[in-house]
Amino acid sequence: MLASQLPVLIVLLCLGAAAKVAVSRSGREPTALARLGPAVLVPARFQAPALLVCAAGELALAAGLLRTTHPVVRWATVAFFSMSTYVLLELRRRRPDAGCGCFGEVSSAPVEVRSIARTTVLAGLAALSVWAPVPGWVAFAQPSWGFLLAGLVVLAVLSPEIEELVERVRHRAPCEQRPGPAEGVTLARLRASGAWRAQRERLASPEPYDSWRELCWRFFVFKNHEQDDVVFAVFLAGRRPAVRMAVVAADSESLPSYTPVSA
Fold it and tell me: Is the CB of residue 36 less than 8 Å from the CB of residue 23?
């Protein structure tokens, strides 16, 4: 049982490393890299190297889990996923527009509760593996199918990347290049969100006075009773899209701070 999730940890670490290497070598613009995971937290010139360093760490952990039962490798894996959970919480608080970058470009959607729950579950699985008596290659050769499938189902439920992959297969284009849902549909999704419910009584009118699309977001601007601008941003991908909200004072010329509220 303790070793049953080692194959899951090893495969996910390898997939994450491969995706980060692919993104860092894809020639994407720095502004695109700046919306992915660890690259958000470093200066622009270090963003691609940060992804490569993270990928190297994931590969080293995967190799260690595969070949050895040394407790240093096992505890380092626990620390990695625990730190990943902390980073995702910080991204959601400080950069609600950024994706986790866990699996490259397919993780470019804003960080949501499921992504944080997934890294928390992985940290727990890594903690269980600390006491596993066999290395990962034995767990691959003699899998415990019941526990393995249960872990895979939980992680699939907690992985928004699956929805993005399905969308890419259907549309064959990244989110920013796809036709978005009709403005009325997006507005209905906004009105079903917690961000809207929190602000609804403060709005002077239920109808926006301005709306536009930028990349994978549609923005709606309303006036509140103090004549400040209340700006909502709705992510255009997914069945339960992320919603962000900011209030811009009427006499303010600075950029607003966004409040992360998921639909």
Answer: yes
